[in-house]
UniProtKB/TrEMBL annotation:
EC number: 2.3.1.51
Biological or metabolic pathway of the protein: Lipid metabolism; Phospholipid metabolism; CDP-diacylglycerol biosynthesis; CDP-diacylglycerol from sn-glycerol 3-phosphate: step 2/3
Species annotation: Cicer arietinum (Chickpea)
Molecular-function annotations in GO: 1-acylglycerol-3-phosphate O-acyltransferase activity
Protein name stated in the entry: 1-acylglycerol-3-phosphate O-acyltransferase
Domain Phospholipid/glycerol acyltransferase: 86-208
Reaction it catalyzes: a 1-acyl-sn-glycero-3-phosphate + an acyl-CoA = a 1,2-diacyl-sn-glycero-3-phosphate + CoA
């Protein structure tokens, strides 16, 4: 059932901004006081702060809008998700794809350790953009002469993150639209490339650099394909705020990084081939209504109301900060703590 957007925008938006600013202040304090002494402790504490903020957005997806996420993956991939460093490459279908990625990360226990490569302007957004900056997201100016050095420096800083993390990259570089698809088709025809129907042509420079610079500590690539049922429009942030439910289908295929070529040209071609495969998968879904042959895994929403969510976020934040202060080299599992709290 849809509701006027203002019903949720005003109270929840106000709560999100106020709580987010508090989190940003705490992040700034530990950035100044803790990070120079121990980057390990800074990352452990900041993970808790980041999760406490981002869980509010997860609630909007799960409980307000009722977005249903269907995950297709083989059993080995499903069991390993959240337990290993991974580079995610995704097609970009809607303006909430990043939120769907956060839902997957939350379900697998690595929400606070999810980072992405994004355009520079995002980091200037109060609350959400600032939290991403403190969480060590990588930001690009879309000027390769500057971005290449920034990426290499950022990748070097990620090598010693204390717990498994995901790094997401939307290699198409922009959200899918019909106009952009026509431009991509014209470009493909002019270069003698396979003509896409459901994806854009990937921009491979960032992906090639990511693979080359992180091979030592990111062992796998999660090849993620997003789509929505043909009977439903693409989800948007405004539709979600109005409480309009939708379904999102996600296929995740796991590739070992050691299987990729060593040369830049080979890595770039691997990425292009992956998107040709994505295009074929989506085209098959359009014609047969069969999305994936992989196993469907249910992603249950956390069984808690908004009030229990705020209580959990506050309690988890307080207890985890105390725990990390007293025992900085021990791990407090978010998933087990959540179960114990309830």
């Amino acid at each position: 059932m849809a509701f006027p957007a203002t019903i949720v925008i005003l109270p929840v938006g106000t709560l999100f901004i106020l709580s987010g600013l508090i989190v940003n202040v705490l992040q700034a304090i530990i950035f100044v006081l803790v990070r120079p002494i121990s980057r390990y402790c800074y990352r452990r504490i900041n993970k808790v702060l980041t999760e406490s903020l981002w869980l509010e957005l997860i609630w909007l997806v799960d409980w307000w809008a009722g977005v249903k996420v269907e995950l297709y993956a083989d059993s080995e991939t499903f069991q390993l998700m959240g337990k290993e460093n991974a580079l995610l490459i995704c097609n970009h279908r809607s303006d909430i794809d990043w939120l769907i990625g956060w839902v997957l990360a939350q379900r697998t226990g690595c929400l606070g350790n999810t980072i992405a490569i994004m355009k520079k302007e995002v980091k200037y957004l109060p609350v959400i953009g600032w939290s991403m900056w403190f969480a060590e997201f990588l930001f690009l100016e879309r000027n390769w002469a500057k971005d290449e050095a920034a990426l290499k420096s950022g990748f070097k800083q990620l090598e010693h993150k204390p717990v498994p993390f995901w790094m997401a990259l939307f290699v198409e570089g922009t959200r899918f639209t019909h106009t952009k698809l026509l431009a991509a088709q014209e470009f493909a025809i002019s270069r003698g490339m396979p003509v896409p129907r459901n994806v854009l042509i990937p921009r491979t420079k960032g992906f090639v650099t990511a693979v080359k610079e992180t091979r030592k500590y990111i062992p796998v690539i999660y090849d993620c394909t997003f789509t929505v049922p043909k009977s439903e429009p693409s989800p948007t942030m405004m539709r979600m705020l109005k409480g309009i439910p939708c379904s999102v289908k996600v296929q995740v295929k796991r590739h070992k990084i050691e299987e990729l070529p060593e040369t830049e040209e080979g890595i770039a071609q691997w990425c292009k081939d992956a998107f040709v495969t994505k295009d074929a998968l989506l085209e098959k879904y359009n014609t047969t209504e069969i999305f994936s042959e992989l196993e469907l895994h249910g992603l249950r929403r956390p069984k808690t109301s908004i009030f229990l969510l705020w209580k959990f976020s506050y309690t988890h934040l307080k207890q985890s900060l105390l725990y990390q202060t007293l025992y900085p080299y021990k791990t407090l599992s978010s998933r087990s703590f959540f179960i114990q709290t309830l």
